[in-house]
């Protein structure tokens, strides 16, 4: 059994304009010690789905299951979730500045986090642990800087503090939502390196949410490509890049700037509204290979190879021919 | 491609802080922008690329040095004297949400340049605006809509249309695609390329995203802490990288190709960019450079052609990289010998 098993997750938000169906039947597994990258563009539902799993979407209508180590996170009560979050499931978000309290010292915030989950640890030991964690994520002179305030840290250092907090209690799963999007590339490389190292050291599973296919190629074991609240394609990393099937995956890769400076191939149009989704495949209106069936019937996520699934009516061979 | 359109000569731009210090955002930059080219300007947060761009467009007064456009010095011109030249130099900004007034209709936003410069009014203006909308791929019938009714990519097209209104010669694009999703980003990059060809435009293209800059630029200038550290034709910058910082920047760029990602050399720089109020002496990069030596900390390197490079390729480094040199195993040695 996988560490995390999400099945048919649906999340919608009521708005004055109608229900926004942000996630529409999402299923995926995360194996222990592996990195699953969830990739998609703005509004694809990639962040909402993991926020829902960790109980952070208040006021949403949620259905489906998400079993983490035998506990269904969707139906779990707040106190169970509060125990799991932090202790067993660590989280890092895009903006490290707004995730740290500006009025409290870095060390205090980490100590507080450790003591919230460990009632027997002494303040002194927790502080020692905090300093160790800061060293672990590569903060220089950690024993001095532990008493700094967040504003005294640079963006990259703050994100490393967030990783230190997320890893403080040796969680089995780390959810990283665009952890390096706000960072410069050289700092991003440092942070990704820290995440990779910690994963090897502690065997943590990572769900990495990103829009950056470069980060996916560097970090992922498995990849889920999301569009309009649902999975378009799911496969091991190399298959997503070299043997992909779904026209949306192909479109994303073709949109990337190339070395050669040749003309790019963008995906025409823009994503559909999640309030009034068209019938059929959500990508139909932008798909270069669309045919009648796509407009009337949404394709299911079907097996097309080992560990490889795609939600597209195109036969496997036809898609390969088009891609080459 | 030898006609110089814009020349930046030893430009400095300082900003006072309330602690009575100065941030040296741009600290002695010289470069030329040739007619018809795209000059890429890359660097990380706080390296001064946007400040330099604003000095180029005379949106900022320079602290010292000069900027000249087609031979006319513009950095000291008054607003009034700048006006005719303003028509020739336009800017496209990053944020397609923040750079358009949400309460004004798109037609009047794009028509502003015509009104300000007294070029067309009434029906003539509307016709010109609709032509522009068509040119950038917007539906001219959406003339009366508000910015909020457009998607991010469409709003960036509005920004492009506004910049094109007065048929400028030079467009400074300040992170024009950074806020957009990749599929939309590609649409805007293609649009800018088409317009450059059709309208004979020159671009200065600023981005923190090296893969975008590589795609669009003929030449690229790499900035670090207010200075240009390397300036070269795009292929040379990538194929014959001389400056250790450029190499580190290239190696940090995630590549959307698993085979390359698994096999390439990665240089992880230590530490963070130092403060621009008190930059390191000597070469500014010496505090993080994997191959720094004692003299890097004292003597500032000049922008020159190094090794067997031609004058097109200039680098500010005492110990430039040779072809195939492995930087990932280099160790700094700052002790004086």
From TrEMBL, chain A:
A GO cellular component annotated for this chain's UniProt record is:
plasma membrane
Where the record annotates domain ABC transporter, the positions are 4-253
One of its Pfam families is: oligo_HPY
Keywords attached to this Swiss-Prot or TrEMBL record, sorted alphabetically, are: ATP-binding, Cell membrane, Membrane, Nucleotide-binding, Transport
State the superkingdom. Bacteria
InterPro entries attached to this UniProt entry: AAA+_ATPase (IPR003593), ABC_Ni/Peptide_Import (IPR050388), ABC_transporter-like_ATP-bd (IPR003439), ABC_transporter-like_CS (IPR017871), Oligopep_ABC_C (IPR013563), P-loop_NTPase (IPR027417)
- Where does the secretion signal sit in this chain? none
Subcellular location as annotated: Cell membrane
What membrane topology does this protein have?
Peripheral membrane protein
Chief localization: membrane
GO MF, one annotated term: ATP binding
What biological-process GO terms show up in the record? Answer: peptide transport
Q: Which PANTHER family match?
A: DIPEPTIDE TRANSPORT ATP-BINDING PROTEIN DPPD, OLIGOPEPTIDE TRANSPORT ATP-BINDING PROTEIN APPD
Q: Which family does the record claim for this protein? A: Belongs to the ABC transporter superfamily.
Q: What is the protein name given in its UniProt record?
A: ABC transporter ATP-binding protein
List the source organism: Kribbella antibiotica
Automatic annotation (TrEMBL), chain B:
ABC transporter domain boundaries: 6-250
Thylakoid: present as a keyword of the record?
no
Alphabetized UniProt keyword annotations = ATP-binding, Nucleotide-binding, Transport
A Pfam family per the record: ABC_tran
Signal peptide segment: none
A GO term for molecular function: ATP binding
CDD domains found in the cross-reference section: ABC_NikE_OppD_transporters
**GO terms (BP aspect):** peptide transport; transmembrane transport
The record's section on InterPro entries has: AAA+_ATPase (IPR003593), ABC_transp_ATP-bind (IPR050319), ABC_transporter-like_ATP-bd (IPR003439), ABC_transporter-like_CS (IPR017871), Oligopep_ABC_C (IPR013563), P-loop_NTPase (IPR027417)
Family indicated by similarity: Belongs to the ABC transporter superfamily.
Stated name of the protein:
ATP-binding cassette domain-containing protein
List the source organism.
Kribbella antibiotica
């Amino acid at each position: 059994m996988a560490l995390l098993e999400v099945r048919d997750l649906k999340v919608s938000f009521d708005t004055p304009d109608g229900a926004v169906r942000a996630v529409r039947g999402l299923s995926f597994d995360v194996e222990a010690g592996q990195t699953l990258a969830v990739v998609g563009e703005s509004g694809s539902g990639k962040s909402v789905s993991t926020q829902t799993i960790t109980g952070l979407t208040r006021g949403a209508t949620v259905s489906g299951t998400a079993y983490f180590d035998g506990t269904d996170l969707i139906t779990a009560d707040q106190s169970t979730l509060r125990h799991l979050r932090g202790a067993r499931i660590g989280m890092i978000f895009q903006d490290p500045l707004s995730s740290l309290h500006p009025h409290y010292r870095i060390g205090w915030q980490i100590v507080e986090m450790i003591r919230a989950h460990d009632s027997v640890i002494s303040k002194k030991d927790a502080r020692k642990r905090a300093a160790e964690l800061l060293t672990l994520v590569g903060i220089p002179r950690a024993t001095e800087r532990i008493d700094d305030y967040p504003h005294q840290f640079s963006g990259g250092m703050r994100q490393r503090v967030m990783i230190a907090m997320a890893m403080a209690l040796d969680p089995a799963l780390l959810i990283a939502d665009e952890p390096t999007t706000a960072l410069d590339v050289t700092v991003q490389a440092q942070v990704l390196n820290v995440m990779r190292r910690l994963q090897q050291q502690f065997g943590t599973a990572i769900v990495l949410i990103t829009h950056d296919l470069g980060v996916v190629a560097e970090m992922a074991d498995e990849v889920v490509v999301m569009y309009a609240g649902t999975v378009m394609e799911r496969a091991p990393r190399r298959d997503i890049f070299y043997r992909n099937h779904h026209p949306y995956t192909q479109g994303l890769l073709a949109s990337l700037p190339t070395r050669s400076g040749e003309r790019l191939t963008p995906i025409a149009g823009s994503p559909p509204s999640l309030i009034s989704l068209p019938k059929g495949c959500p990508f139909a209106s932008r798909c270069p290979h669309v045919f009648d069936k796509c407009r009337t019937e949404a394709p299911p996520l079907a097996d097309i190879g080992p560990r490889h699934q795609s939600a597209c009516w195109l036969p496997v061979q036809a898609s390969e021919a088009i891609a080459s | 491609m030898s006609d110089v359109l814009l020349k930046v000569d030893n430009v400095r731009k300082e900003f006072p802080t309330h602690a009575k210090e100065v941030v040296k955002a741009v600290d002695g930059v010289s470069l030329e922008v040739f007619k018809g080219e795209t000059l890429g300007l890359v660097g990380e947060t706080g390296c001064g690329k946007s400040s330099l761009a604003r000095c180029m467009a005379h949106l900022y007064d320079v602290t010292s040095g000069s900027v000249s456009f087609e031979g006319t010095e513009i950095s000291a011109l008054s607003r009034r004297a700048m006006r005719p030249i303003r028509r020739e130099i336009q800017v496209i900004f990053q944020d397609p949400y923040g750079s358009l007034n949400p309460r004004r209709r798109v037609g009047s936003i794009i028509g502003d340049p015509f009104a300000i410069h007294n070029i067309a009014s009434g029906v003539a203006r509307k016709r010109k605006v609709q032509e522009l909308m068509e040119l950038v791929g917007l539906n001219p019938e959406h003339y009366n809509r508000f910015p909020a009714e457009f998607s991010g990519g469409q709003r960036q097209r509005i920004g492009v249309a506004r910049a094109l209104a007065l048929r400028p010669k030079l467009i400074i694009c300040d992170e024009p695609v950074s806020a957009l999703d990749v599929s939309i980003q590609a649409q805007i990059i293609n649009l800018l390329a088409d317009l450059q060809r059709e309208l004979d435009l020159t671009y200065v293209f600023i981005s923190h995203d090296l893969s975008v800059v590589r795609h669009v630029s003929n030449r690229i200038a790499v900035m670090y802490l207010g200075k240009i550290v390397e300036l070269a034709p795009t292929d040379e910058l990538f194929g014959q990288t001389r400056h250790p910082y450029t190499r580190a920047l290239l190696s940090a760029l995630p590549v959307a190709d698993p085979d390359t990602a698994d096999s390439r050399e990665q240089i992880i720089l230590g530490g963070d960019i130092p403060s621009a109020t008190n930059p390191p002496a000597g070469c500014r990069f010496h505090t993080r450079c994997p191959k720094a030596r004692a003299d890097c900390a004292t003597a500032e390197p000049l922008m020159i052609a190094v090794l067997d490079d031609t004058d097109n390729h200039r680098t500010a480094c005492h110990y430039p990289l040779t072809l195939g040199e492995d930087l990932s195993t280099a160790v700094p040695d700052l002790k004086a010998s």
